Amino acid sequence: MAFYENVFIARQDVSTTQVEALTEQFNTLIEANGGKVTKKEYWGLKSLSFRIKKNRKGHYMLLNIDAPAAAVHELERNMRINEDVIRYLTVRVEGLEEGPSAMMQSRSDRGDRGDRGDRGDRGGWRREREDGPRREDRAEGGDAPRGGDA
């Protein structure tokens, strides 16, 4: 069997208990088709980047699935039919993560990004130029304007 991660977004007007019931319905469907759901994570009610079917927010839920492809196809078919599911995404992965996902970890626990250093506002590295005057020197009139026939 293959490993899959499935994230679905439920409508904003359903309650958290209804989202849990929907998750249990999908879990039962996967188990009936010979698979199992190894992890369920409720990420909460979050704002969407853009409106989807007149919704500005949605309940996010992650499912880690160990199932054959036929079970996942049936799960996606049921998600398409269900009116409470706005969007879903299923990705096949090499292995399932054991601990909490990146969404559930606090920012201090995600220390794998390292020190970002001195980065500019456009993401590039700032460095001092040695061949010309600095910005504060140019502001005082230390450098002629560039371009044109001056």
Can you characterise this structure?
With 150 residues, this protein is α+β, with helices and mostly antiparallel strands. The protein has helices spanning 16-32, 69-81, 135-139; strands spanning 2-11, 36-52, 55-67, 85-93. Strands 2-3-1-4 form a four-stranded antiparallel beta sheet, with helices on one face. Helix 1 packs antiparallel against helix 2 (69-81). The longest helix is centred in the first third of the chain and has 17 residues, at 16-32. The radius of gyration is 25 Å and the shape is elongated. The termini are far apart. 16% of the residues are buried. The mean pLDDT is 82.
Beta-strand percent range: 25-35%
- Mass-distribution shape: elongated
The CA-CA distance between the termini, in Å, is 73 Å
Spatial ordering of strands, largest sheet: 2-3-1-4
Strand runs, count: 4
The arrangement of helices and strands along the chain is: EHEEHEH
H/I helix tally: 3
Largest sheet, if any? 4 strands, antiparallel
Helix content: 10-25%
Integer average pLDDT: 82
Q: Determine the structural class based on helices, strands and strand pairing.
A: alpha+beta
Question: Roughly how many Å is the radius of gyration?
Answer: 25 Å
User: Which regions contain 5 or more consecutive residues with pLDDT less than 50?
Assistant: none
What would the keywords be for this entry?
4-stranded antiparallel sheet; 150 residues; 23% helix; alpha+beta
